[in-house]
Amino acid sequence: MRTIGNALIYGAKLIGNREAKLLLSHATGYSMSGVVLHTHKAISDDEYNLYLSYIRRRQAGEPVQYIIGQWEFMGLPFISDKRALIPRPETELLVEQAFAFIKKISGGENIIRVLDVCTGSGCIAISIARLTDKYVEITATDISPDALSLARENTEKNFLEPERIKFIETDLLDGVSGDFDVIISNPPYVLSSEMENLSQTIRDHEPHLALDGGADGLDIYRRLIPQSKNALRPGGALFLEIGPVGVMDLMADAGFENINLLHDYAELERIVTGVKKNV
């Protein structure tokens, strides 16, 4: 009799224990802890063949998030596929910082306007929507129609009304009108010369449009930061995930104040924030 335990041991030898457990969980319908608790139980031929197909895809370099079609961000489930980057835990820090600022400026009956640029899967905009009430009006932009279709699906998956987030297909802030209290973005920032050095999982499967930041990784920031300055209300704040150095200088050159750099949990420089001066 082929058991769940046998299948787990076989998969762990090929792709590692954690990923084998995750894929076996997805193939059998057990939770990851359930896989461990039910190692003695039989696995059907259909389940086993599905599991083997997952292993082959993983061995070919496909991200496990794309294989199972879902990933968690800020404790919320998100559909994950090749239309957009996989939501990553370091980006949660970006959302946390923006949310803290929103709480700080909230109060009364004023609507707080938030803009998520390069929204991708929609994980940032949707997380903020779930953390806040309707006093926060959220707009999200992306140049990729495929990414926006995924973001809309994730809006529905997280039980948000369609009108809760306004999605716009555009290049950064082009054609986006109105004054915002918060602009937040995790833009492409990988140096073009480093694209080929990325892991196969990223390089061959995740969208290059959402990764390649130009020769020095700053191409998008050079456009995004001045655009954001013009679109923010006085006292509004810009929150950026970063890769290369130089973003703080660009924000200073654009006239932002209270510019801060935050490190992620791996002690890497990860977030830059700045405030538009009050007139």
By DSSP (H or I, 4+ residues per run), the number of helices equals 11
Shape: elongated
Q: Uncertain spans, ≥5 residues at pLDDT below 50?
A: none
Series of H and E elements: HHHHHEEHEHEHEEHHEHEE
Radius of gyration (CA) equals 21 Å
Biggest sheet, strands in spatial order?
5-4-3-6-7-9-8
Number of strands: 9
Percent helix, as a range, is 40-55%
Helix/strand/pairing category: alpha/beta
Distance between the amino and carboxyl termini? 75 Å
Report the portion of residues in β strands.
15-25%
Can you give the mean pLDDT?
95
Please outline the major beta sheet: 7 strands, mixed
- The oligomeric status of these chains comes to single chain
In short:
The chain contains eleven helices and nine strands.
